[in-house]
Specification:
- By secondary structure, this protein is α/β, with parallel strands linked by helices.
- The protein has 3 domains: 280 residues, TIM Barrel, CATH 3.20.20; 49 residues, no CATH class; 117 residues, Copper amine oxidase-like, N-terminal domain (Copper Amine Oxidase, Chain A, domain 1).
- It has 15 helices and 31 strands.
- The strands form 5 sheets. Strands 1, 2, 3, 4, 5, 16, 17, 18 and 19 form a 9-stranded mixed sheet that branches. An 8-stranded parallel sheet has the order 6-7-8-9-10-11-12-15, with helices on both faces. A 7-stranded mixed sheet has the order 28-29-22-21-20-31-30.
- A hairpin with a 5-residue loop joins strand 20 and strand 21.
- The longest helix has 30 residues.
- It is globular, with a radius of gyration of 29 Å.
- The relative contact order is 0.11.
- It comes from Ezakiella coagulans.
- This is Amidohydrolase family protein.
- Keywords: Membrane, Signal, Transmembrane, Transmembrane helix.
- GO terms for molecular function: hydrolase activity, acting on carbon-nitrogen (but not peptide) bonds.
Length: 611
Amino acid sequence: MKKLLTIILAFLLINSIIIQAEPENYDTVILNGNIYDPLAGVYLKNYNIGISSGKIKKITRDEINGSNVIDAKDKLVLPGFIDALSDAKNEEYNQLRLKDGVTTTVIKSDLPFDKYILQEENQISYINRILIYDFTPIFNPNASKEEKEKFESDLNERLDEGYAGLYFKPTPNSKFPNLKNIPVSYPIYLDFFEFEDSKIIPWLDKFKNDQKNDRKIYIVNSNFHFSSMDNIIGYSNDEENVFMGGYPFSYTNIVPSEISDEKFNKLINQISINQNEFNIFRLSAENKNMTDTLSVIGLIDEKIINKALTCNSFVSESFNRFDAPRPSTAGINTFMGRLFLTFDKELPEQKDFYNTVFSQSTILRNIFGNRSFLQNKGCIETGADADLIIVNTENISQFSSMTEEIHPSTGIDSVIRNGYIIYDQGNYSTIAPKAYYLKDEIPSFIDESYTISTKGKKKRKFELLNYEGKHYVRAHELADYLNIKYEENGGTFYFGGIIRLEIGNRDFTIGTNKLSLKNSPHLIDGSYVIDINDLDDIFESYYNIEIGDETLNFSADKMSKLLDKKEDNGSSINVDLNPVSIFISYLMAAGLIFLFVFLLNKKRTKTKKGE
């Protein structure tokens, strides 16, 4: 009977383990990808992503299942690019931009919001759109007081309808529009197409000083002004709240070497090569057969391109590149061109490459505000919109569209928008829902104010993240408050040099002891975060923790002294253990040895008695 009972119990135990180990299911999963999240600056190697209801639900090394599976082994997973400005309406053009990794774009209009959407309803299928209001047609510098009031009223009305920002194309003699009664959270795009190079920065400087606020300013089309490009990049880097867009990378084209001599000669005549300094680079037949592909630097010289690549206030855009009879891929592949120019297979640390991804993915979030509808875009984190691209870094290239055939850029294997696979291995989806206009989207998480206290320390207000009904504390903020050493490294993070946790993994370790959490840590809002209900398990040996409705109370145990402390300047040090701590450690070790010997002795005694 005992034997049968043992077998049944063993079966139930094994069965429960199997049930617990069954992988979680999602709508779509990306497996074994090398993930780069620009918001947190985190590189996660060989991680899986679970996507459901258009959101990233889990980032983990655990096994997961999905109705749709993408194998991203040895490939890079990046946030979908946000095109800073586009004039394109043709869907063939937007198909090609998907191959450039664009999942969201900014569009300007001078119509009321609803009227524009009704007019363009049938034109949107691939790429989500953000609308900015072009007030150039209604701006009258000589307006009467009543007309000025109506102008302000119209702007506020458009913004209330759903426009995300403003657009203005001034002339060198334009007076400044009065935007003082327009909420400062709305950015303004300034298009200096009508300006001579030397007039741009003086006008911009006066405009900025006239505003006397922190409104974000985005400079449009500045790279038409070749001689001042360098100065404008410098200005946007030096001035807070000033950013710039452009597409100098579109002029760094790769010409296929198999092109015929006749086509090649025609190509020479079609490309303007540094109009201001023609001798910097000369495209000739001698260059044609040098390598499999030929790099052509045109219009903007290589030094300025390199400066733009590493500038944290610069973003690529494909604005006004729809002039050709067919889509001009030279203007589309600005994004892949940017990756191509910064990726170096020989370098183990791709600093410039990741800097490029960071600026392209996060500047638009910054321009439109950290709590805007872009809250959930431009990052790869729990709760973020599943707008993702899978990049094959072995295949990044950029082609010229100036030959007879259209050659879109390559390197993008898959594009996921709002959780749907829109493009995969050369095929476009015919069943995915249409893209949409971004307007008043509710963020996936909200901040809630909590008070954290511990004996002998001042209470501190913390902003805890509320995501799907659970409250999370930012790990680095907690460590800072407790004054313990904190480290992060590729998805793994440590408290006090002893406690080791990992993104997406419920298992954690304290020293050599392996333990388990109720909920795995996540990456949210650029931070590693922990469910507050797991704090008791994480710090069980070091702190007693009480969780109230809006409070977290920590009471330090003597063992808390074993955690490495950090110095006042933020650097970490190891703590010299005092005699009391050492005595407690030896006492605990002796107790464990005594218990082990006692139990072993008891077993031997029973064996001798024949039990």
